[in-house]
Design a protein that fits this description.
Elements (H helix, E strand, L loop, with lengths): L1 E2 L8 H7 L5 E10 L12 E8 L1 H9 L15 E2 L2 E6 L15 E5 L6 E8 L11 E9 H5 L4 E5 L4 H17 L9 H4 L8 E8 L4 E11 L12 E8 L6 E6 L2 E2 L10 E6 L7 E7 L7 E8 L1 H4 L6 E3 L3 H6 L8 E12 L2 H6 L8 E4 L24 H13 L7 E7 L1 E2 L5 E2 L2 E2 L7 E3 H13 L1
Parallel strand pairs: 20-21
Antiparallel strand pairs: 1-14, 2-6, 2-10, 3-5, 3-7, 4-5, 7-8, 9-10, 11-15, 11-19, 12-13, 12-16, 16-17, 18-19, 21-24, 21-25, 22-23
Length: 454
């Protein structure tokens, strides 16, 4: 019999929270081609400024009431129109086709919509102030679109966001009118036909350290007896010391096994950074007590590399207090590694770069359980334009992230449980009212959804 809930130790949920999470760091390598020349007697001296808009920047600006003088990022950079500056390249002298050595670093979160603005300038004055420099063009792109465009993302430059939005909107409408099939050229490629202002190319380099998957099956043999009217209820804990040596993090805590000195614990699986392979670990075994703090049985210092060695090791558990009192003390039992596998864990971006494609399909429930769209209680309620209903919120939140990983952004969108115009009840109809359920982008899906409600 076994269980969790050891006093003085962490729960399985807390263990998951304490496991080491390594952010995905990216470095962006930039180059431009065919830039406009804004200098009369020479050639432009271009550089690129990179801005980021994400959940945090938007919240900070909202708290400041939209005041750009008050809205500041954590790096004390001003937040303008929801964007903060995160980096600049060096200035390349006298060229319209610069390849920049200075890379820009960002942190990537798959589950969040992160938008980058690349603004290209011609340096006219030796100052960091941008309004005195000549603007050569800009382009917006999500981080998701960057990382899913392998190996290089390239786009035309635009004068402003409206020009880019108009271009992309026009292509999307044209594709929708053609009733496109999956596999047709994507919007990304079709919007790159006009390069009058030059192009920007971005190559993404992942900087995140390799993670390791550790799978351990372990047992104990002849552990010390700690209970007066029984044996012991042993469990083990894995900790790693931080570089300061002042604090230890719990990597894993097993379940306790009741009334035994020879426990066999459930298999353990955790993920750790590769740099921890040879770092010291403290492996300790304890006796669970329901009404008091756990009793220490013994511990040993090891590493993940040693745990995964062949033949599988047997480790003596040492209780230093007990050892100091007994001359013939050997150990307080053995920790037996029955098997231990340490494997590399590919990152999400490595899967994407290797060819993984995500397809996004939508099904919307129009059955009576959702309520009438005219009722404020309905999930489909459309009476308040300032407050999107729950379906719109869900489609926008999920679709705006996933659409960057669908190569053509052609989404099958279906509905069920609705009365059609001819009076029939359908449990499988195309949301756009056509024979082909494909909608272009999340905006196309939302347009079809609004039309279906009307």
């Amino acid at each position: 019999m076994s269980g969790y809930g050891v006093p003085g130790a962490v729960s399985p949920g807390e263990q998951a929270a304490n496991r080491i999470q390594v952010p995905t760091k990216l470095k962006l390598e930039l180059n431009c081609n065919g830039l406009r020349n804004r200098d009369t007697l020479s050639v432009s001296d271009p550089f690129v400024v990179v801005y980021l808009s994400d959940t945090l920047t938007k919240k900070l600006q909202e708290r400041a009431g939209g005041d750009t003088k008050l809205a500041r990022s954590l790096s004390n950079k001003p937040i303008l129109e929801g964007y903060k500056e995160i980096g600049r390249t060096e200035v390349q002298k006298n060229t319209l086709n610069p390849s920049f050595a200075q890379q820009v670093e960002i942190e990537y979160f798959f589950e969040e919509l992160q938008t980058l603005r690349f603004a290209v300038f011609d340096q006219d004055r030796d100052t960091d102030v941008l309004h005195v420099q000549d603007a050569l063009g800009q382009v917006l792109v999500t981080v998701g679109e960057l990382v899913s465009s392998s190996p290089v993302w390239t786009s035309a430059l635009y004068d402003n966001e409206k020009d880019q939005a108009a271009k992309e909107s026009g292509v999307a409408e044209a594709m929708q009118k053609l009733n496109v099939q999956k596999g047709t050229p994507s919007i990304k490629h079709l919007t790159q036909q006009s390069h009058a202002k030059g192009t920007l190319s971005v190559r993404v380099h992942e900087q995140t350290e390799t993670m390791l998957a550790v799978s351990l099956e372990a047992a104990g043999i002849e552990l010390d007896k700690k209970d007066l009217f029984g044996k012991s209820d042993p469990y083990f804990v894995l900790k790693v010391a931080h570089h300061t040596g002042q604090h230890q993090s719990v990597l894993y805590q097993s379940e306790f096994i009741r009334n035994t000195l020879n426990p066999i614990w459930k298999p353990m699986q955790i993920r750790v950074p590769e740099k921890m392979l040879h770092e010291p670990l403290e492996l300790s075994v304890w006796d669970y007590d329901e009404l008091s703090r756990p009793d220490f049985i013994g511990s040993v210092t090891t590493t993940f590399a040693k745990l995964g060695a062949q033949p599988a090791p047997t480790l003596g558990l040492i209780n230093s207090k007990k050892a100091s009192k007994k001359k013939k003390y050997v150990d307080s039992g053995k920790f037996i590694v029955r098997s231990c596998l340490v494997d590399d864990v590919p990152t999400f971006l490595q899967y994407i770069r290797a060819g993984l494609k995500l397809n996004f399909s939508i099904g919307i429930d129009f059955t009576a359980s959702n309520g009438s769209p005219d009722s404020p209680e309905s999930l489909h309620y459309m009476g308040d334009p300032s407050r999107p209903n729950q379906y719109v919120q869900a489609l926008t939140a999920v679709g705006s992230v996933l659409q960057d990983y669908d190569s053509d952004r052609a989404f099958p969108a279906l509905g069920f449980g609705a009365k059609l115009l001819d009076g029939t009840i359908s449990f499988n109809f195309c949301l756009n009212g056509q024979m082909n359920p494909i909608c272009i982008g999340i905006d196309g899906v939302l347009h079809a959804y609004y039309q279906a409600l009307r």
